[in-house]
What does this fold into?
Amino acid sequence: MVGEISRRNVLGGAAAVGTVGLGGLVDPEGLGGPARAVAQEGRGRGAGLAYIGTPTSRLDGRAKVTGAAKYAAEYNEAGLALGPGLAHGSVVTSGIAKGRILAIDAAAALRVAGVIAVLTHQNRPDMASTDDAYKDETAPEGSPFRPLYDDKIKFSGQPIALVVAEEPEIARFAASLVRVQYDEAEHVTDLYRQREAAFAPTKPGASMFGPPKPRGKAEEALAAATVRHAAEYYVPIEHHNPMELYASTAIWHGDGKVTVYDKTQGVQNVHRYLCGALIIEPDDVRVMSPYMGGGFGSGLRPQYQVLLAALAARALERSVRVALTRTQMYGLGYRPAMLQRIELGANGRGELEAITHDAITVTSQYEDFFRQETGWSGLLYACANAKYEHKLARLDLATSCDMRCPSAATGVYALECAMDELAVALKVDPLELRLRCYSDRDQNTNRPYSSKNLRDCYRQGAAAFGWQGRNAEPRSMRDGSELVGWGMATGVWEALQMPIAVRIALSSNGHAEVSCATSDIGTGTYTIMAQVAADMLGLPLENMSIKLGDSTLPQSPVEGGSWIAASVSNGIVTTASAIRTELLRLAKQMSNSPLADAGPDDVVFAAGKLVSKRDASRAVSIADAMRYGAVDRIEQQKSTSFADDGSHAHNTHSAIFAEVKVDEQLGVIRVTRVVNAVAAGRILNTKTASSQIMGSVVWGIGMALQEETLIDHNFGRIMNANIAEYHVPVNADVRDIKVIFVDEVDDSINPLGVKGVGEIGIVGVAAAIANAVYHATGKRVRDLPITLDKLQR
Ligand code: MOS
It folds into this structure.
């Protein structure tokens, strides 16, 4: 069944007998104290929580490794009984970066046996004409790109025709025969050439993604500082490169309706987008994405292949699949290239007196995508004077977009390298400098944190790494012919929560179906949903069926920003509480009910029963209460909106320690050890959470040493649009990675104290490695990636 994990082959036995669930969230015993600490170590069973906090294996793990899990391009049978079967679309992309299409000659393509149609801007069906119709829930300001809309070319790699054929090979061959005549215009794809033309898209403090308001007098404080450091840091364009290619299979149902299997981080976002762009009714399309082979932000916005697949299916009245090639995926969004200038001023005691942080980031000619690179600098460290500037440079490329920990991965890279350079100038240990500048308040908004245990990240990370054994002198540590370098950095990200709705249907046999239109982009959402639901309902994990990735399910935002774990688990808490109230209502109606005088907060679910918190001998089983009420299931759907009074800042933090070994003759850099100590509130699943952090660290290694999208500016075209020439870490590049979750109790952020860990793991990693490379070699490379040629310069 699509989108459903009915829990088999997971964790051997049932939940520990006698385990008390968390049904009564007012009960502090259930959440804090020793139970919590034990849960963090993965031994939570019998200590108040059966599943939350344990290293539970993925519910979808077996389906994924055996190939049973279907991805968007793998739906071959569903719904195809109708009509002539599945047709395949191959995309023709623009060979120029800017201009107009004068003519498209599809004659040769159409002569190929098996070709059904060639759709272009000239013969496509009707599409919406307003920008608003194409704006998805994550769209930036501007005029969204519309595939096959008109003759304008906005970037190289832009889709300009879709060849539809009976077989994918035929479509692809025929696509190669489509001839296009262009009226070419002059393009610019080089950030350095647009630097002077960059503009501020928003005023400081005026928008969530713009820079924060300045404080104090940064220039004066800089001038008066005892020690100053100023430098410019460069991050290139990077691409997400998820394993699964972008693809959509649009199943035509014969009645004007389509079901679209899509690769996306948000089925409802895609649903609304298709309704808007294709001018169709909500009931005309259903979007499904039960599994996703990685997204990392590239699937937050609907990608063009989904529109093309749905458009073609409706035009041809048959099912159509459109799968992109790896090279075509480089025509989607990307992490924007950026230039960042940071200036730091400190007094003689090694305390920050001033910070200025300016960024110029890349966007397209038609949308203003930006995130707050600069604000992290002013947030993190105690410093009375701070000033920011963010500018956008327009290039003839597709619009840049979110990529894992957008703004923090890059902004904190620059900040944390600058802090290392300041530490060198001050002759202070880099960790000691961070401690001297430690702040218990969000410096930008002057609010306390709901929780911040960065101190323990520093302490435990340093201890696990052996930081105290570091010789501060660059080039002072060696291992045979290799120079050894140790570097560290701080990480910070937001602990966000979004409105969400969850439905729970509890059956009298103690099974529950939990549904929400969220995605599991590979992060483990199925699994944590089952863990939280099982604990909230006091039932075995294997009794939970999780449904997600279907636009018809209860409302969910896109899965991004690390907000789904906190959001959906709290949605489950809220809905489970409504189930408890309803079951208690039935239980109280029983003659001589042992719960006759109990209120909803006086009982918890445990081991298949509603149990009085005061007297565990007073209990009614789920089965008995339902039998008495003559129902065999109770269903509740609740929305959770997270009213935030704004009194506290919510963030996750980390401390990263990295060791590199650098071959002195060749300049080859190997990252031999990384310790990443993370404070992210309650960790729901220590196994999947560790995997998130570990994957992020691997990405940090790539960001530091390998990843770079290269453009031939003569043609405005990406040169290395494939994973042979776009380098990412492989097994041989990844050595010892240790993940630590420090204990961080957060009683106010949400009932479970969850903050989310999808993105924090990458923040600071590239900086820690860059700082280690400096320590090893005495050479400071500020332009990522740090390739060996830059070390030799
Ligand atoms: Mo994440 S970059 O919000 O998918």
About this structure: Confidence is low (pLDDT under 50) at residues 1-47. The chain has 20 helices and 33 strands.
